[in-house]
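The aim of this short unit is practical: by the end, you should be able to scan a pair of folded records and say something sensible about each. We start with the first protein, listed as its amino acid sequence and then its structure tokens.
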Amino acid sequence: MFKFWSTESPKSTNTSGVNVFDPKESSTFKKTTGAAWKISYSNGSNASGDVGTDTVNIGNLGIENQSIELPKELSAQFVASEGDGLLGLAFGRHACGRI
């Protein structure tokens, strides 16, 4: 599962100097109807939003129909952090919401 800062992120999210994913700019993005995600971490940070699929490229590796999470709500820890988002890899049975 990939989580990207996106155009769906809260307006309070500081996206200056980071790459922001815009699903409208992708010809392969598909929003997954009725799918949502929510996660909380032991440090009190949390995030939630919508789910979609897209082709994700990492170096020379292309992954088609990869589920990605687009944040709509982020705790202060995420808003204040640096970076373009989170990359988490897991087998489906271990993934948040089994997405």
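Turning to the second protein, read its sequence before its tokens, just as you did above.
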Amino acid sequence: MATRAPLVVPALSKHTATVIWAHGLGDSGAGWKPIIENWRLRRRFPECKFIFPNAPIIPITVVRVQIEMFPGPIIDSVTELWYADAWVTTFDSLAQAHDEPGILRSRDYFNSLIKAEVDQGIASTRIVIGGFSQGAAIAIFTGITSPLRLGGIVGLSSYLLLHDQIKDYATTEPSNKATPIFMGHGDCDPLIQYQWGVQTAKLLREMGWNVDFRTYKGLAHSAEPKEIDDLEKYLEGRLPSTC
């Protein structure tokens, strides 16, 4: 998968943990760097390296699935994305619109980033994968199908990819069934609907995953300080200092 090199923020002290964070559609890895800069100023997570991959810039056709509700032409464009998106209006229609080859290519890419960290001596249980929006969807899909036991899985403003096939992609005994998944979602999100996040958490719990789903009142398709504070606390619990 052709992509630009990730943005890497090295650990301040001995490197014992890694966070891999995937941006959303149309963004870049640098878009989330200010949060890490704030943590660095406060000397939070000094043992942690942060990796911000950049999605490839590829053509995309935005398909309006429910034409009667959203009349208009098919839109061709080029942007940064982890898989080809489609304009859908219900959680069930997501499964019909997913770009399975693109999702699997991105999943394999993130698995290669995880493997590279393990090959450098970082325990897989000290690696957290997460993201926002489309990046969060890839992070969750990668995490729950990973052959390695990870330290954590995070999805902000997210949904479950290929949810009608997820049992086919997850191993019989998934490595991360006991790994806490942190999900956050604004209840006023007009792009990744709040109910998609609720249904994702419900479906994962029904399949045995441990999901902490947080609702942020009045939040649209974005992140807010309270959500970032909750993320910080989650990372503190999953990647405690070894000093």
